[in-house]
Design a protein that fits this description.
Strand content: 25-35%
Distance between the termini: 107 Å
Structural class: alpha+beta
Radius of gyration: 43 Å
Shape: rod-shaped
Number of strands: 24
Helix content: 25-40%
Strand order of the largest sheet: 15-14-13-24-17-20-21-23
Largest sheet: 8 strands, mixed
Number of helices: 9
Amino acid sequence: MLTLVGVLLLGGSAFGAYRYDAATAHRILPGVVVAGVDVGGMSRSEAIEAVTAAAERFLQREIEVAVHDQTWHVTPQELGTTADVEAKVDAALSVSDGFSWPSRVLRRILSRPVHRSFDLEYAHQETQVDRFIEVVSRAVHQSPVNASVSVKEGKIRVTKPAAGRALVSKPSRAALIEAIGDGDDVVRFAVRTMRPRVTGAELGHTIVIRVSQNKLYLYRGVKLRKTYPVATGSPRFPTPQGEWTVVDKAANPSWTNPAPDGWGADLPRFIPAGPGNPLGTRALYLNAPGIRIHGTYSTDSIGSYASHGCIRMHIPDVEDLCEIVEVDTPVLIFW
């Protein structure tokens, strides 16, 4: 064969060899590889078809995205990733430009490989990647839960604090793109923990008064610390329900008649501190007008609806309560 080529080139058939080179110019030289595919001897369309098939295996592979206890499955193609197949095939065709036409003829006839290789480059559609990150972010997101004591639907609701979580978007996005490029089948997204603003310790004390039971419940954080029997307002002067706050507290308070022209008409206008004082030895003043949590010497009234709206307590109980709670303590009163 080598002798034949020599004859063709040197023995007067150079023109024939030249025409052979021209006739095979649309085919890639032997030994050229694109994306692991040997495209030597192929035309442009044949090479594009072969390399596209290899690229699709890469683009259609399933990637598992794991975040905390959830997983998603997505392909690079679904994320808008594309491969520069045509550009690399054109680069493979242009390899022949680096050789003289006699050299090309020899390589084609003798199947002498040129040993050139091209890797595909992959481009990503940022909008589709970002859209997927947003879908995962929304699914993963959990807002932190603050500790609280509240009243809902006629029941005391104690909510324990709980941490939340959020996707760390930028590193997760970078990890996904890296996994696409590296051919990884699994990628893990990072999440950050969001601490609640109010923990049990930060919540402090909460007073809950249940009028239907004539009970006062004292919570510290989300734990019930103490329960006290109380007296609440009579049907004519009901204790106002709602969310209130302790705005002041007093030891050995004096009493000023709040209704000298009404229900207090037959009572003194002022009673100093001491035995017999209607407020007992301690009083917590609420931002509900005229309403206090206070002691009483009328111990028989505890457990009944007997006051003019205030919350009465046994003297030792109110002294204990005043020792524990501070101004700004929330007070929840409900039926």
